[in-house]
Specification:
The complex is a heterotetramer, with 2 copies of chain A and 2 copies of chain B. Chain A is of the alpha/beta class. Chain A has 8 helices and 14 strands. The chains are: A alpha/beta, B mainly alpha.
């Protein structure tokens, strides 16, 4: 398997150097990606982070209307507390900082440790756990955080930009998460630079259902099927957990290696499914947003909107990965 | 606490039957060496039920541990362990970084020179408790705890039974190894592997495997003197 | 090889249905993608098109500040004259229509035929031929059109939006093309839905240098190398043809299957190369814009800017694939 | 011109030694059939030096040709060919759509019923000239012209030499087949394959291969009666 890198060891830092060169709106230092404009006094700061390999998540969502800083770890490995402490301290504009944490043991532990160390900053946290493929029971680490992270970052970011206090920003973040569900399907494995070979072998006749975003195998294997059948599996799983009603925000997310053309094919099926349920696709995004390196496949994330969330979703955003209204 | 210097004068691993600073440094060197040797295996285990980075994580971490120890040479066993734990927390990330980091820090904070066999066993237990507490994990969850807890018990029993250091480490290593192997039929309840549900059954937990490796290094180092 | 489709035959239409569902700003009819807002009286219309499988090119660039209509053909197959005639007639706001045509025999022939049939519309054409991998000689079909198409569409689109007459819009389009050069490298082949297997076999130890955007093999095979070495090959080829000086607009384009993280790694090397030449990277884009289905690899496209081109590049644009300033 | 009805009354392919409307319909049916049979091979040839769509393009195109012919049944040879050409232009896209489309349209516009052997040869030449003109291609450029031009020459020579229809088609088919094979050692100067430079050498041109197929269908159909 070929990778467009200089070495597995330097890949994350090299990519960050590229990001810095590509986006003058970002400032990157010690593995933390900041807005070049710096913290704004009185605005709640938003910090997220996680393993690398999910680009544009999270660093690509740093900018006006979304994050103030992102902490990229090694590929698929949570960042370390130092990065998070550094980011949190730097972006605090006096109104406190919200940590947006995807529910993975590693992310949770490292953000928790960091939060404890940020003694001079008021820190609140929101845990994103939207993946219905994982049973939320005493017998798991709980549901994973996947596509809803983008929704949380966008909507909480918009509210923070309006000047809302930390408690409110944290509360809307939690609400977005509570109203969001995801399900992912892999057609191929991904290959991490360090491992250099696919994480799992998947024959041409099979797919993995219920995957996360770290190249983990899914809950079960199933026969390869049409876009219609595959999206139906995803949509049914979501609908069983959170009935599709009212105005929906829909993310049809590519895992990194699936052509946009195919994502649109799947999206047409998602739209038809939603119409069939009598719900309304009020807002949508199609593309590679929360990825797993070169994995082929997709995930669907759906959030049940209300007027406030719709307004905040529509608010201007200016980041490398998501931009409108400015 | 780990800060006060130990009794030792030379570079030996044992001094009047107690474990020296040099012993702990050698332990970490051996761990770094073994993690590198077994890097692919650990990553392969993690590929099966996780995200294929455990080998890389630990390799990166223990390489940094050795660098930090070289940069500011510790003068007491506790310092060695606390430094190692801090480095792991600062450099590894993922689940294993905070977990192993906290374990080594807890051990380091618990050892009191002179580090007798009983002192070591107690410190080791403190490390295990730190993992269990942070990870909210218990034996049977298919995590590193499944290797660490039996090793800790073996060390404690060896003290009770008056078994010598070398033999105690061997018992602990065997217990850890068996504990790691016992994770194979388990269904994971913690960490990434728990997402797989029943599909996690049939694979050895990568963290349990690395824990067994870490305990085994006690034997190697103690056999050297 | 697995494809997220319902059938190879329906893939293009299914994808267009998905585009329509995803983007209320577009109207799609008879395989032509229009702005939903319709033609603007007095504005020069911009029509482009080409085979499908290059998404977001072209349909994703329909909208304010870029195209008025796009004509997607079958996968890697130029559209037919009917589509182009339909599009041209529909978007004419009385000021004439510019056809933006990538230099491939099929695209050229079909656009030529269409232009002849558009008797009531004033039609001008610009041929994009930026790929330095192809020798421009009597013995080839001339250079291919690749990444510069995006620059031409964006910059000519901005000028058209300002109300410039057809001749001026055509002239700036030609100027952008004349100032732009590209070079592409494939790490893997792509797989078309119809063929169902990779177009070419490429061992793990080799890359294809000088590829186009249709999964064709490149000019030569070379050993797989680091991101630094591969980008240097691309940059050298461009620099030999059009010395890198002054203000540059740089597109580091993914071929569809390469993770964004790796594109950033390559971009860092591109930026370093440009600095090394004493030129200035004034504007840049990193991402999957002119793709070859699921191919892994990248291309670099560079345009030598002047003040006018920079201003037009910076002008607001609002399309599914490129958006800023609104 | 192609619009006027021919002499034929029944469904036969030949009428007093001239080619009937039914013959031309059968020719296109046979082409559609053969293109489908050889679809993978044509695509594989295009994969080697092009973009792997030639088989799919022609399959789609000739399927549509048959549909259009069924929708409004032609009453003259010229109508058959013009309809086919128009459909190819309207439905295929790519390079081959306009090229084959123009060829069939030119042929259709050139045939004058009753279509004698000489009339067919002249119409075929008109088709070849249309391709050469539109594609700015000459023999030796490694395109469909390399199969079509020798076939046209063979048809003309057969007329000069007074050879019968069936044999004339056989000679043309052989010439086209040899012409297609002769593209293997050529370096492409037109179309997508020209991008490959020297790497285009050693592969048969897909368009030449499909042209040989199309000419071969004349033999099959004329053998039927
Ligand atoms: N909650 C937990 N408690 C104890 N150990 C855990 C827990 N979660 C994960 N682990 C251990 O961590 C190992 C995985 O480490 P690693 O692969 O380095 O991190 P990550 O899972 O973040 O990729 C697992 O094999 C398991 O032994
Ligand atoms: N300029 C040209 N003149 C004549 N024939 C050409 C020309 N360009 C391409 N061709 C023919 O078209 C064939 C390719 O057709 P096809 O694959 O359907 O279209 P595309 O190249 O657009 O994918 C070539 O093999 C060649 O025979
Ligand atoms: Mg990890
Ligand atoms: Mg792991
Ligand atoms: Mg084609
Ligand atoms: Mg082709």
């Amino acid at each position: 398997m070929k990778k467009l890198i200089n070495s597995a060891e330097s890949a994350v830092d090299d990519a960050l150097a590229g990001m810095a060169a590509a986006h003058p709106s970002l400032r990157i230092r010690d593995r933390v990606v900041y807005r070049a404009s710096g913290p704004r006094a009185g605005k709640v700061g938003l910090v997220s982070g996680g393993g690398s390999g999910h680009e544009p998540l999270h660093a690509g969502f740093v900018g006006y209307g979304m994050l103030d800083a992102a902490c990229p770890g090694e590929v698929f490995t949570s960042p370390v507390p130092d990065q998070i402490v550094e980011a949190t301290t730097a972006v605090d504009g006096g109104a406190g900082v919200l940590h947006i944490v995807k529910n993975y043991t590693g992310d949770v532990l490292n953000f928790e440790m960091a939060a404890e160390l940020c003694e001079d900053v008021q820190v609140a946290g929101v845990l994103v756990d939207d993946d219905v493929a994982v049973q939320d029971s005493l017998y798991t680490a709980g549901r994973r955080g996947t596509g809803a992270t983008l929704f949380v970052e966008k909507i909480a970011g918009a509210l923070a930009e309006e000047g809302a206090p930390l408690a409110e920003v944290a509360s809307v973040a939690g609400e977005v998460n509570a109203r969001s569900r995801s399900f992912g399907i892999a057609l191929t494995s991904c290959t991490t630079p360090a491992a250099g070979k696919p994480t799992f072998d998947l024959p041409d006749t099979q797919v993995e259902l219920g995957i996360g975003i770290h190249g983990e195998p899914g809950r079960i294997r199933a026969p390869m099927a049409s876009a219609r059948e595959l999206t139906e599996i995803a949509m049914d799983a979501i609908d069983r957990d959170l009935p599709l009603e009212g105005d929906l925000l829909v993310l049809l997310n590519g895992m990194g290696g699936t052509p946009l053309m195919e994502l649109y094919v799947a999206f047409a099926e998602v739209a038809a499914f939603i119409r069939g349920k009598g719900a309304r696709m009020a807002r949508s995004l199609v593309g590679n947003y929360v990825t797993s390196l070169d994995m082929q496949g997709f995930s669907v994330t759906i959030c049940r909107l209300d007027d406030t969330l719709t307004r905040l979703w529509d608010a201007p955003v200016e980041t490398p990965g998501l931009r409108w209204g400015r | 606490m780990g800060g006060s210097p130990d009794h030792e004068t030379g570079g030996g691993f044992m001094d009047l039957g107690t474990l020296t600073t040099a012993f702990f440094v050698a332990w970490l060197e051996e761990i770094a060496e073994q993690v590198r040797v077994h890097r692919e295996r650990l990553t392969a285990l993690d590929a099966a039920i996780g995200d294929a980075d455990h080998g890389a994580n630990l390799d990166r971490g223990f390489t940094e541990v050795l660098k930090a120890l070289a940069d500011s040479p510790p003068t007491a066993p506790g310092q060695v362990l606390v430094s190692a734990g801090t480095t792991l927390i600062r450099r590894v990330g993922g689940a294993s970084g905070p977990l192993y980091g906290s374990a080594f820090r807890a051990m380091g904070n618990a050892v009191e020179p002179p580090v007798t066999q009983a002192g070591f066993a107690a410190a080791f237990e403190a490390g295990v408790v730190a993992v269990e507490r942070l990870g909210k994990a218990a034996p049977g969850d298919k995590t590193m705890v499944d290797a660490l807890a039996p090793a800790s018990l073996a060390l404690a029993l060896a003290v009770r039974d008056g078994v010598g250091v070398r033999e105690a480490f061997e018992l602990a290593a065997r217990a850890a190894e068996e504990g790691a192997r016992a994770t194979i039929p388990m269904q994971a309840r913690k960490g990434r592997a728990s997402y797989l549900g029943e599909r996690s059954i049939g694979h050895e937990d990568p963290g349990a495997a690395s824990s067994a490796l870490i305990v085994a290094c006690l034997v190697t180092v103690s056999s050297r003197r």
